[in-house]
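Predict both folds.
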Amino acid sequence: MPTQESSTPAQIVGAGFAGSVVARELVEAGHQACVIDKRLHIAGNAYDETDAHGVLVHRYAPHTFHTNGGHIFEYLSRFTEWLPYEHRVLGIVDGKRYPFPINRNTLNQLYDMDLDESGAEAFFERVREPREPALTREDVVLNSVGRDLYEKFFLNHTRKQWGLDASELKAGVAARIPARSNIDDRYFTDTLQVIPKHGYTQLFENILDQPNITVELEVDFENIRGEAKTSRTVYTGPIDAYFKYCFSRPPYRSLRFEHGHLPNVAHYQKVGTVNYPNDHAYASITEFKHLTGQRHTGTSIVREYPQEDGPPYYPIPRAENEALFKRHEELARQEPNITFVGRLAQYRYYNMDQVVGAAPAAAKRIIG
């Protein structure tokens, strides 16, 4: 017979990766779960849909799945077929397009050189500005590629993306985009790089397709807090919101999306995403047909505008923000029946695979 706890649904706040995977894990262990989300849809920021023109688009910026964790890939493969996809990005500098992250071809095109791999390594060694210890994003980039490349590709882009100078951000945020002496022009180098064959939303529908999982949309946790009879709450929203902003709010970076469609245009740009580090208010343009492989007579794009106000997307990696989160985390430890998991709840810049990897562990702690 089920225990009282297993027969009382766990309340899962948020239908993104963290909440959906935790819900699935709980019901497979014999529990029940009620997933709520204040949006009109499941899948969180990974939500995709066919637009009015018949093109599959990602509503909240492009999402490409990449991981070195074979077990994470195998876990999600239970719920989707995959298409291979390696994301490529170009950066616009002085009106010309260059491979990004910076690699040997970037150097050769930018400086009109003909470097081989050892020559590129020697170039980086010659121009780099040693920074030890490398504490900030600026330190990491200058230590890697030197002043000129920093100013061309990183200085203004960082200000646009984060609303701060690179010297004001922790070093970790720069580790995602290292320079390369080879000609590998993939944005990521993970061993597994794919995209769900039928879209992210269907992936989430399959994860949540269990008799003991109920999903309630357009439900704001703040409006029902304390009302539901639940054995456990799993919270994936901003941790400061859960504690009703009892301390100063840790800052987040938001985004605004401008979607558009171009009829009778096979492709708008050569790669999935083009960055605009020095020009325009938008930071990038993504063309979705590159990601999905879809065939269509027209093409759909999205421009991303980083901004301070709006829904939270990215925790801002600064020491003072981390200290403020730690104060909230201390309060979280005093909540025995609440589990905080995910990018916003843990104030961490997690990739999708990291969230998927963390969610089963959170479920096991609940079950245990």
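Second protein follows, with its predicted structure tokens after the sequence.
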Amino acid sequence: MGAEKITNTNTNFKWNFIENTLENLKETNLYRGMNELNSAQSAHVNFQGKDLLMLASNSYLDMSNDPQVKIYTKNIIDEYGVGSGGSRLTTGTTSIHKQLESLLAKFKGTEAALVYNTGYMANVGVISTLCSKDAIIFSDELNHASIIDGCRLSQAKIVVYRHNDMNDLEDKIIANPCSRGLIVSDAVFSMDGDIVNLSRVVEIAEKYELFSMIDEAHATGVIGERGLGTVEHYHMDKKPDITMGTLSKAIGSEGGFVCGKEILIEYLKNKSRSFIFSTSLSPAVMASSIKAIELILNEPQRVQALQGNIQYFCQCLRESGIEADSKSSIIPIVIGNEKKVMEISKELFEQGYYISAIRYPTVKKGSARLRVTLMSTHTKEELKRTAQTIGNIVNKYKGVTNELYSTI
């Protein structure tokens, strides 16, 4: 006798929680969708047949559309093809991969470097490899999700300290003594745009014999006289033990990287699961990163143009009635209410400005914001016009509500 087929009279029952969750997101103005672009990621993009000034991209130096980067990448494709064919420890390492890692080590002033497939995989891989159940991780409360997930995956004890508060960090280290530990922080915080107190992080880590690690995703190519990052920004001689970063932001390509002592890199090659079990990035992606880093090193005026744009745009915002001050390319304008920030972002889109609305869970509830990010190739005229438009729209909404509008 055959087994009876089990049927459920409500065939959609198993999907109900998904449907309900999506409906709840829509009702609370937290539902997310994707905007399909029909052009290169650059200072101007084509969206739904309309030219928009891009002010939400992390391609801070406009490298993803740079002619020199594209020509060099095309030449590497002709020689190496479009795929790597395997993981880095099998067949997926080419001379282009090694060239990029050597250049990254030179760029960050370390003994060695290792490329991961994404910045997310780099953070998850490094933290979960260095730390385990017997370790304690001291993590800034505003760290990126990839750091948080790496901490969780490690199964170490996680102690969260107040944002960029070095006194609170040290107090919590004293209250949680350990024989093996890590202090980890963003270098430039991705939603607020402020910069870690790196000298104190390194000093405290050395004092208590902890590893120090910073995520320079939004610092590389942006801060420091030559765009070398946080160490250069603070004119430090002593570096953190681990410098992580991405190739997908100012460098305009794809991937993540880790720089540090050679012994660290060798350890990660042999123990880091997100590195070992991933097919490597293509030689074409490696090539685009190589050329972009060379341009940053050889043409410092690109970084200087970005830093000049940051200062000028903040000045224009202040003249338009919005307090603003940032040393990074991230300039948040806090609206507070999720519905209002969506309305403002939509109005900016309609007027030709691509500026994203950032909401929970990316930021805390009630701190929804416009997240403006600048490129080195934005013109002064474009930035002034943008600041005036933002000021007009935001102040219009401010006139009908008691909510606070400001930058952090």
